[in-house]
Amino acid sequence: MIFRARQFKFVFPRPALVMGVVNVTPDSFSDGGKYLDPGAAVARALALIAEGAEVIDIGGESTRPGATPVTQAEELRRVLPVLERLAGRVEVPLSIDTRKPEVARAALAAGASIVNDVAANRTADAMWRVVAAAGAGYVAMHMQGTPATMQSHPRYRDVGRQVGEFFADRLARLAAVGVKREQVALDVGIGFGKTLAHNLELLAGLERFKKYHRPLVVGVSRKSFIGKLLGAELDARLPASLACACRAVEAGAQIIRTHDVGPTAQALRMTEAILAQQT
């Protein structure tokens, strides 16, 4: 299986990719405000790469539950200086975490190679045409509703089946506008329009998504469902985040999105070494 993102090509099976998170926002749930300054964001990205990140995901708009959207101009003001400073300086792909087609277009022009789209539940195809024209990688994430509404009353008849149906539909829609299958990765959207029970059910049944033959992205880092289950505050959720990441790789996930790159990379490499003895 191949994942292409412009000039980058990843061939699976291979060790799971660790996607390091850099939030250039004042209000992200985990690290809002820490990296709002471009210099701080660039330094953070370089530190994550040194810890083992093979993708850097840069976001300028919080998508935490209840988050207020920002304008396109403000999002660009936050992310472009960071992308411009990192492009050409690092050898890993840069991902832009955005819901706005024009932000994606500008970010790709500034050196990004992947669009991480939490709003892949969209029906308009403008974002997908931007991705197709650039030959960029695209992460299609499942979300019920919007960040502002997604945790109001998430309901499913069968969460695993419905997420799978969403993936099949989006792969077809993407192909229809010229996005090649090799450009697409899939994200079940842990915490995005899901209850604690939904998140646990998805993590327990990740194997069911192998049939789409696309890299599976899983982001569990520090998320609130961990706190709900274990009573852990934000800064005490690393052990549970690692447990979920290792479970995801055991189930066949290829990309783990995390704020804590060093510990996650170490945990994944140990998990993979153990799993290699089973074959």
What fold name stands as the CATH topology?
TIM Barrel
CATH superfamily: Dihydropteroate synthase-like
Q: Mean of residue pLDDT? A: 93
Rg, rounded, reads 17 Å
Q: Name the overall outline.
A: globular
CATH class: Alpha Beta
Going by CATH, the architecture would be: Alpha-Beta Barrel
Give a verbal description of the structure.
The chain contains 9 helices and 10 strands. It has 279 residues and is an alpha/beta fold. It has one domain (2-276): TIM Barrel, CATH 3.20.20. The strands form 2 sheets. It has an 8-stranded parallel β-barrel, surrounded by 6 helices. A two-stranded antiparallel ribbon has the order 1-2. The longest helix is centred in the middle third of the chain and has 18 residues, at 159-176. It is globular. The two termini are 19 Å apart. The mean pLDDT is 93.
Describe the structure using short key phrases.
alpha/beta; TIM Barrel; eight-stranded parallel barrel; 10 strands; globular
